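Weekly modeling sync, notes
Attendees: S.R. (lead), two postdocs, one rotation student

Agenda item 3: backlog of single-chain predictions. S.R. asked that every request posted to the team notebook include the full sequence so nobody has to chase files. The rotation student volunteered to paste the first one in as an example of the format we agreed on. Action items at the bottom.

Example entry:
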Amino acid sequence: MNPNRPKSLRSLTFCALLIAMSIVFSRVFSISTGFLRFNLGSLPVVLAAVLFGPAAGFAVGAIADIIGGVLAGYAINPLITLGAGAVGLFAGLGWRYLPARRDGVRLAGGILLGHVIGSMILNSLALWLFYGYPWSVLAARIPNALILSVAEWFLMRALLANHSLMAAARGSLNGRRSE
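Predicted structure, as returned to the notebook:
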């Protein structure tokens, strides 16, 4: 039996749960004002990026956007899907490679980087290109992304402090590997 299989199966299962959470957070628990939407759909994406790496963060963000869009009856916009994945990718890259000594600073930098590139740049570009939103209207997305980044930072700090969650994600129970 492959020794990596239980860990990869556990990671895949966690990522599937995070995809489902992202869909629920962004589609059900959402406040929409037309072109602005306040939700925590990126929180599971960032969690996947921190726990399992930038590629997992990208996959969770992109797959959640595709499935959520299909369930809501929307046509899939590849640039918006790329933006959703970019939030996870850049949050994970920031978490892993920013040179800060404190985890909170690396986490804040990663989340902010993910939202700047994914939400502010790629998604705003998609809304301008495909739907004709003027840049003056899209400027309102900047405080939205900043507020969501701060909220996600606080929630991620609480989640990362939860030792049971971290042990389950790593595949251990009380310091021992669970079988």
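Discussion: group reviewed the output briefly. The longest helix spans residues 103-131.
Action items: rotation student to repeat for the remaining queue; S.R. to check formatting next week.
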